[in-house]
Amino acid sequence: MNSCLAVSASHIHHKFADFEALRDVSFDVKRGQTMALLGHNGAGKSTLIKILLGLINPSGGNVSVLGKQLTAVKNRAELKIGYLPENVSFYDKLTGKEILNYFAALKGIGKVRVVQLLEEFGLEYAQDRALKTYSKGMKQRLGFAQAILCRPELLLLDEPTVGLDPVASQFMYSKIDELKQQGCGVIVCTHELSLIENNIDIALILAKGQALASGTLADLRLASGLKTRLTSPQLAEAIALQPQLAALQQGDGLLLDKQSKSEVVKLLTGDCQVFDFSLKEPALAEIYHFYMGQCAQLDEVS
Ligand SMILES: Nc1ncnc2c1ncn2[C@@H]1O[C@H](COP(=O)(O)OP(=O)(O)OP(=O)(O)O)[C@@H](O)[C@H]1O
């Protein structure tokens, strides 16, 4: 079994009675890598997370977590998995410190770690206040601290930044980054595509229980065939000098595939002497919508 992998999932199927929630889903997440798990409501993301947590057994396929085949793991606690559910809810009459101490005791973790996490997550000042007095951001930080109490080697986060302001969201991603640096594999389920774009290594796009695409952003861009947009204040001059560029024009820019991108850049900086231009690669949101559109088209055909 490959010890570099935090998760290795191959050909996962899952049925709820007659309904196929997951169909032949395969993916790997390396230790130290973050994967975005993307998909529409009901795509099968939570089902996949529940399988990784060992809460449900898949109807078919193989899943290894942290180098161990899930079916062979007798005591789940021996796997260092952290989990932050969507809309984390704790008993709100307890204080932040009491909540972390409670989970620490359940997991056999000492109170020193709780003290350290309360400080790390900027909650020291509110540690003795009841949870009901906490803001959304404070509750989410407490939830995150709870998820990493066990110093996880695999961290599963369901919508970790929903409802958070930009600074609070960035704080969450900086914490994820620290864990990655320590070799933790991270899977983030989210609909916040522009926010996650710069914080992931790979993505898996699910629709109707099937994997539509997976890989790095560069892989997904290439496979989608979506084009790079080049804009320049000197575009009209460049087209006047090289009229063949007009065929690539759309609106105020040029749309370029992988091959034409290098040719056009060469032409602009060479013959046209145009150096003031910018290239915009397709964003994760565009890539996601492209694949969702393809899935809808396939449905229309079938
Ligand atoms: N216990 C269950 N019994 C029957 N069907 C279920 C069960 N759990 C989930 N499903 C169905 O499986 C499909 C996938 O659900 P899942 O919760 O995994 O989707 P999701 O991608 O997490 O959606 P969301 O983004 O809305 O949270 C849905 O059609 C859902 O209704």
Automatic annotation (TrEMBL):
It comes from the Bacteria. The keyword Acetylation does not apply. InterPro entries: AAA+_ATPase, ABC_transporter-like_ATP-bd, ABC_transporter-like_CS, ABC_Transporter_VariousFunc, P-loop_NTPase. Pfam families: ABC_tran. The keyword ATP-binding applies. GO terms for molecular function: ATP binding; ATP hydrolysis activity. Residues 7-233 form the ABC transporter domain. Keywords: ATP-binding, Nucleotide-binding, Transport. This is ABC transporter ATP-binding protein.
